[in-house]
């Protein structure tokens, strides 16, 4: 399976279009696209660092993306850039990955 993570918050934007091109390119394989505009994910903070002790206590569905990435044959990130930097969804995703992988040390 190929996993595509579209970090854009806009539906039908450039990143959405790029994700579609990727899906067409891999027409012989199963492609799972995760669009950030379809969900609201919570950024890190407002906790007692549970992710350092066990695992992140936030249950907003972002772990499904991490699980798919771990099981994928290939993962493609489609990241919009604003003022020469990746957008905030990418940084949120990166922060939250610590909670997932700290809770799954075998990965």
Write a structural description:
The longest helix is centred in the C-terminal third of the chain and has 15 residues, at 88-102. Helices cover 38% and strands 18% of the residues. The model has no long low-confidence stretch (mean pLDDT 91). The chain has a 3-stranded parallel beta sheet with strand order 2-1-3, with helices on both faces. With 107 residues, it is an alpha/beta fold.
Can I get a quick summary?
The protein is α/β, with parallel strands linked by helices. Helices cover 38% and strands 18% of the residues.
Judging from the principal axes of the Cα atoms, what is the shape? globular
| Radius of gyration over all CA atoms, rounded | 14 Å
The strand line-up of the biggest sheet is 2-1-3
Total strand segments = 5
Distance between the termini: 18 Å
Low-pLDDT stretches are none
Fill in the keyword field for this structure.
107 residues, alpha/beta, two-stranded antiparallel sheet, 5 strands
Fold topology:
Blueprint: E1 2-6, H1 14-25, E2 31-35, H2 50-53, H3 62-71, E3 74-78, E4 81-82, E5 85-86, H4 88-102
Parallel strand pairs: 1-2, 1-3
Antiparallel strand pairs: 4-5
């Amino acid at each position: 399976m190929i996993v595509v993570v579209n970090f854009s918050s806009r539906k039908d934007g450039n990143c959405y279009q790029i994700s579609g091109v990727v899906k067409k390119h891999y027409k012989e394989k199963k492609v799972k696209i995760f669009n950030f505009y379809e969900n609201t994910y919570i950024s890190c903070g407002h906790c007692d660092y549970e992710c350092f002790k066990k695992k992140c206590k936030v249950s907003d569905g972002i772990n499904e993306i991490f699980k798919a990435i771990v099981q994928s044959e290939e993962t493609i990130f489609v990241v919009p850039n604003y003022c020469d930097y990746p957008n905030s969804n990418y940084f949120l995703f990166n922060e939250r990955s610590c909670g997932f992988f700290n809770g799954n040390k075998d990965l």
